[in-house]
Each structure stands twice: as C-alpha cells, then as structure tokens.
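Case study B.
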Amino acid sequence: MNNDKTALNRRSFLKASLLSGGGMLMTVSWLSGFKSADKSEALNLPEQWAQLNGYIHITPDNKVKLICPNPEFGQNVMTSLPMIVAEELDVDWKNITVEMGPHDNAKLGAQFTGGSNSVRMYWKPLRQAGAAARQMLREAAAQTWNVPAGEVTAKAGVLSHSSEKTAKYGDMASKAATLPVPKDLELKAPKDFTIVRKAKKNVEGQKIVTGKPLFGLDYHVDGMLIAMIQHPPAFGMKLKSFDAAETLKMPGIKDVFSLKLYEDGFEQAGFDTRSFNDLLVVVGNTTWEVMNARKKLVANWEPAGDVKDTMGGRNGKREVIVPGALESTTTQMQQMQEYAQKPAQQLRKDGDPETAFKNAAQVIERTYNAPFLAHNCMEPMNFFAHVTDEKALLVGPLQAPGWTEPTLAKLLNLPPEKIEIQMTRMGGGFGRRAYGHYLSEAALISRKVKAPVKLMYTREDDMTYGIYRPMYTATYRAALDADKNLIAFHVKGGGIPEHPVHANRFPAGAVDNYLAEGWQIASNITIGAFRAPRSNFNAAAEQSFLDEVAEAAGKDPIEFRLALLKRAKEKPVGKNNEYDADRYAGVLELVRDKSGWGKPGNEKYNRGVAAYFCHNSYAAHVVDMVTRDGQPYVERVFSAMDCGIVINPDAATNMVQGAVVDGIGNAFYGALTHKDGVVQQTNFNNYRIIRHNEAPKKIEVHFVQNDIDPTGLGEPPFPPVFGAVANALYKNKGRRFYNQPFQSEMEKVI
Amino acid sequence: MATYNLKINGKVRQVNVDPATPLLWVLRDHLNMTGTKYGCGIAQCGACTVHLEGNAIRSCQLPVSVVGKQAVTTIEGLSEKGDHPVQKAWLEHDVAQCGYCQAGQIMQAASLLKNNPKPTDEEIEAQMSGNICRCGTYLRIKEAVKSAAKK
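Model:
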C-alpha cells in the first residue's frame, strides 16, 4: 500500500493547471465532491442512492453507480475513468453501472475532454475518491460492529471482519455517506491492481450496437423545433440583406431571422472562436423541411472587410484585427513562401548555429507544407437548447462545458447556476467540439423563438464552416561536419494563422547548435485544435527530415535517432527540453525489436519509421508499405507507446490503431482548400477520408510496461504516423514527398 | 403531404409527410427512431444504412414514396434482444470508439453476410468501403465480420 496524504482534508483543494490549446488555466476543486451528505440528503436521494462523493453512488441493495466526469468522444473515458474509481473502491466490475455525470465542475473537476488529459488529470483524484469511499465504508462497518476500522477489510464489494461478520457495501453505504472524509488515504500499489490494466469492454457497447439514442443529434423532446444557419458562401463575407418570403411559404417553417452571435465589443475567451458572427437562421418543424426551405432563401452577401474582434482572457482585453481578404490556397502558398524569407521570431537558440552552418561540410535544407484540415466528426455539429428568461437547458456533444458555460452566461445574461449543460456521447470530436459556438448559437436561437430548438449543421455546413487545423510550412536545415556528425539544426516554421514550432522538443537538447524560429500570417480562416495540434504537422516534417539527414550521414534512421537521444540524456544541450530521452529511446527500441527492423524477412516491404513526443506520451511507428494496384499501400504497422500505466489495454490498443488509420488517411488524402474565400470541399464526395480497403491489414500495438502515472493516449500516436508514412513512401517511390496530402503530390507527377 | 404505411421492423407505421422526404428523416424525425444516423446526406458515408427487403441501402437517398410495401429493417430491429451475430461480434471485438457510424457498419455487415456467408477479406473490404469510420476502427470491423461469419 502507498500511503497517500496529499491534500486530503475537507478544506483544501487540489489545484491543477490544464494547459492545452489556448493555454487556459483551470482550477480543479474536485475535493468539494467529497462533501459528506448530511443524513437527510443521504437518505432522500432518488432510489436511496447514497452518494459517497461525486463519483460514487451506492444503494442499500448494493447497486454501485460510478459517475464519469468527462464527456465521451470515443476515447473510452466512460469505461476507463470509472475503472480507476472501481479499482480503489474495490468493487466487482461486473456489478457496477456507469453514468455520464452532469456538468458540475465543483463536484466533478474540470470535465474537459481534450489534450489527452482525461486519464492523466483524473488518475489521482479518482483513485483518491475510490480509496476515500472505501475507507468510509470500512469505518461505517467498524462503528456498526463495534470493532476497530483497521480490522475491517473491504474487497470486491464486501466488508468483513475476523469475527466472521460480513456486509455488502450497500449495507453500509448510507451510514458511510454521513461520515467525515478521511484525511489519510491508502492507495493500492500497481502490483495489486485487479481492474486497472485488465481489458474491460466499452460500458456503452450494447447501447451502441443496438442504436440507442446516445448522441446529441438523437436528443428529442416534444415540441422541439429544428434550426439551421445559412452562413456566408465565403470566409471574408458577411450578410448584407435577405428576403425570406419564399422560405416562409415552405411547409413546416416557423421563422427566419438574422441575429448576432457576439455583440460588438464582446470579450471572447480562448475557445469562443466562430467562423461567422451574423447568423441567418431558418427554424421549422423537421430537418427535411428546414433543409429544403433554406435553399429558397434569397440572401445578399458583401465583403466583411477587416473585422475587429475583442479578446478577453488571462492576458487582459485586447483588440484583434481579422483581415477581410477573400483568400485562395494559391495566394496563401505564395504568401507563406514570402514570409518564410523574412526574419522571424526566435523561439530558442543554443550554441552558435550561424557559425556551425558556415563551417559545415554539408548542409541539407528542405521545406515541408501541409494544408488546412477539417475535423469531419461523423456526427456534425449540433446542440439542443431550451432557453427561457429564467433558465437554460442545453444538451448535446461538447468537449469543454466548463469553458462554454461562462460565455453562455454572458450571452444569456443568466447566472451559471441557471444554466444546465448535459453532455451526450459525441460522434467524434478531435478538438472540434472544444469550440462551443454552436451551443451558444442554439441558445440564442431558442431564446429568440421561445421554444426548445435543436440546431443542426448539415455535413456541408460542418465542413465549410469549421474551426480547422491551420495551414503550415516549415523549413529545416541540418549541418553535418566532415565526419557526418550532426553539428547544427535549424527549424523555421510558419503558418496561417499560427506557427507550428515546438522549440523545446527533440532534437533540441541533442544538438550543440540549434535554432528554432516561428512566424505567422493573420487570416479570417478560423482555426483551432485538431488531434495533437501543431504536433500533427511537426512530426510529419521533422521526422521526415531526420530520415533524410540520417541517410546523408550514412546511418540507420533508428540508430541515428538513438545516438542523438543518448547525447540528449548524457549531456543535454540547453534548457527546458520537454521530453525524457530515455522514454523516447524506449519506444524506438521497442518498435525496432517488435518490427524486426533491419532483420531478414521484411524484404517485401518499403519500411518507414518515425517517433514523436507530445501530450506527455511517447510514440513510435514502423510503417510497412507495398505497391498494390500501382498505388502505395500501407499494409502493416508496428506501434510502440509509452503512456505510463495503461488503464484498459484493449481499448488503448483500439485507440492507437485508430490513430494510425487516421494518420495514414490524413497524410495521403486530407486537404481543405480555398478559392476566393470559398471552401472547395463540401462533403465526403470531394473531401477524401480513408476507407476500409485503404486501412492496413494489421496494426500491432505494443506498450512499454512501467509503473509511471498514466499520461494521454488520444493524441500522441497520431503525429508520427505522418512521418513514418512519408519515410516509407520515399522507399516505395524513390523520391521524397514534402507536400501533404501525398496522394495529390503523387498525382501531380503522374 | 401524403400518408404512407411503412413496414418497419415488422410493424406497420403510418406517417404523413412530403413524398420526397428521405427515409432517414422519416425514421429520425417522424418516428423518433434515431439509431439510423445522418452523416453526409449524399450516400457517401454509410451512416444511414438500413435494410430494404434484407439488402443494405442508404436511407438518406431513398425517398419515402418509393418504399412502398418493401420491408424496412433498422438497427433497432436487427434483432429483438440485440443479439444478432454481427452485434455480438461487435461486442466481442469491442469495435466502437465514438460509435456514431457503427449502426450503419453493422447493418452493412449483416446484409453482406446474409448474401455471402463466407466472405473473403477482399469481399469484406469491397462491401464495407462505402461506410466511413472517422475513428479508424476498420481493422476491428473486419475481424468482427469474420467472427460473425463463423457463427
């Protein structure tokens, strides 16, 4: 047993900083979830649920209900987070049920799904919640039996004493709920885990395979209206006027109106991003009627010109000018090439890179480009809202209710306690649903029409009205001395509208002379987090570049990286290196061994390797490519991950396999382009998503086994897939690919 | 508007709708059967797959007026107790991540196996490639289809 005395008394709070995407700082005061119910509350709960804390409810007839704090978007938190509670509570997993929690940050913590943070952030609080409840149950039994609590054991939902007294948790739950929260907790040692590290099936699996209404789009109340927004045809345009006469004549249509999402001067928080502010809204009875009636709208659009946005947040209020140009991909590319030649912001410098490059025996310089990407969650953006003068109910798919609620409170002029947000299962998220503008839109529409409303985006709305992965470029330079040693490394990255560079990541720390620079171009194309923001570009470019440098140095690509990591460990260069060189090397060694890298038997494959560190975890892949029907095809992949303790190994494997498929698909096909501000891809007929026949036949996933507290897994396996694919493609095609998506670059040459 | 008596999951359901309304929206909006999903509206993603006389079709492209007396089966009616071999195989392989596309995948797979009880890998790929899974669960879907084929 580990004795855990951290921060556990009823007046203290565990503060955790959550830095992700917009760099928002959040305070988690989960401990108030430990508020012991007073006796009346404990006994008057529906179905006699005794609430031991925010996460654990037990009935007298021994039903155990565990509450999942974080919204589910496919990362399987509804299973893995309750597993952590169940482990320390020590209950039989077969006897528990899981329920998605309400939005209640005071009781349930940050409730943010994103940044590969769910397990990492909740690992300790949930263990403590489980352990505290278990100790309270033991104490309740001890008091009832009049024996010392230390003599009462609690295992698999049963309390027992050497005097042969036994009780189920349910027998003692009501009493336990009235006891004080223990100050000192005993947490299990990892070797004693019986639930964590054992594969558990998705707790919602049966509901999924039988089509139960789990998703936001499935939510329904009687009298609910359907709303859709007609947005401008191009980024940089806005509504000038509209004529709704024909639309209003269509069957089932209730109302057509325009409204402003944010009033002038509204202080936007980091995740209040929205593509367009003036919304032209059609409201009617059914989806099909609204879809058809919307087509009859006569809307006049005009150039928006430069727009002033007011940003709030931690750094205080500031004005931002969003340029009004109607952007095209060709002009964006030209602009990026121009900016790449200009001086940029220095992000990190070690040694004397200028001199090293001047004295180098060989300099390798390569430029990499990647387009905007749309998230394309299978369930398009949508939200249910029922807003009255007194209160608001919102139901739907959302990654970060705690970030959206303050915005909503301001928009609706309602106190937060009058706003109820219920999180449904999400049909994908990938970062897109951290931006709650569609929830705010639904709320304002409901308030306007004074009725319950479900706002729905069609696929076309979802794709052309997105919060995209930015467009990126980066130029890498490497200097080799006469003995082919890497003596200097330079990355200069830029993007629209942000640069991708993580200056303190590998190979920073492993090279004596190092320079990282970044620049960015303002744009009206709205961007945001997309599965492993920035990393999803860096890993593609940097890992592809290192492959080329290793080749120039005459080294095996894995041994080349391992030598650099050895240097970073033994004699690190500079400060603030973000990664642990040992763990980084660990995944490379694991994937090397498991894939039989450099060993006979793999001659039929064009092999590419890449590794990356992001979101506190380490990932490496070996991609095995063949030519099939004249096309490069990734037939087999080996993956190695180090994310510390793996809560649910089978589900974790599923997620890594999915990340590999997602990475291959986006590397080959993913692209969102513009012409005069108009998004050129509108649906899955012209935005290509990887399909069954293009997925590998085998993806073998291996986890480094250690007892390190768990870190994230949703994002880390994704970025290095791009690099490994690029490196395999080089072997397959005999030339390097520098521009994503690779399929387009291949077709250009053919 | 017109009245239709649709045979859905073994029951006759009456709806009064515009004849052009796709079956998908009749199911979802008029009958509150939301297991069948909207993904693209143009038969490119397969999320809306149902069976018409036992064969997989995209309900987003099927006007209600052409359904006639043909029997419609949705995910809610694939089996009475949620224990169709394909559903069981999906659970056995713990296929789902977000789960949104899986009703469509299951309906497509059930139709595939009904017409071809022992499909090859290539036949599975060919039959399933109209169904997008954005989470990338394709490998498990294929394994689940193969498991179900053995039963």
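Helices of chain B lie at 23-30, 85-92, 102-115, 121-128, 138-149. The remaining cases will be described in the next quarterly update.
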